[in-house]
Design brief:
The protein is mainly α. Helix content is 84%, strand content 0%. Helix 1 packs antiparallel against helix 2 and helix 1 packs parallel to helix 3. The longest helix has 38 residues.
């Protein structure tokens, strides 16, 4: 039983780290999209900041999932044995809400397609913007859900005292 508790805590930590990594990755895509709105789209500062942010996000996410993947390869067990917890459930709900928001953004783009054609921005701008919406909404939703739960738990503990 203690092993399951440690496994649940490890999964919670991994999911929290992934959410922060997704937030960092969303900043990368926001920077990539914002380059097209600048007067000088070949601005090297934005490109280097975007590259540095993407490297940090990649390393952060690999740091989060690396130990779990290594353990699965080492044990040769590739089945899904994730223990249930509030954090895991919140992460899954955040991903679902992110997809809903991304699909809504796609529908808005579809409605505004005549206006978008006149703006004359490259397709990369819209793709980077959509990926930003997806990653940012997933990470922020997850962080807000877990923060609200921590605040609720603190109030319950104060009531017990």
């Amino acid at each position: 039983m203690n092993n399951n508790l440690n496994c649940a805590e490890a999964m919670d930590l991994m999911n929290s780290r992934i959410a922060i990594g997704l937030l960092l990755a969303s900043v990368t895509y926001a920077l990539d999209a914002s380059v097209y709105l600048l007067a000088d789209p070949d601005n090297q500062v934005f490109k280097w900041v975007g590259f540095a942010t993407s490297m940090i996000a990649t390393l952060w996410i690999f740091r989060a999932v690396g130990p779990a993947i290594w353990k699965k390869f080492k044990s040769r067990s590739f089945t899904h044995q994730e223990p249930e917890s509030f954090i895991t459930e919140a992460f899954h709900k955040a991903i679902i809400k992110s997809w809903i928001l991304t699909i809504a953004a796609l529908m808005v783009l579809k409605v505004l397609d005549q206006f978008i054609a006149r703006v004359d921005l490259p397709v990369d701008f819209y793709l980077n913007g959509l990926v930003f919406i997806m990653l940012f909404s997933a990470s922020v939703t997850f962080l807000l859900m877990t923060r609200a739960n921590e605040h609720h738990d603190d109030e319950n503990q104060q009531d017990l005292v």
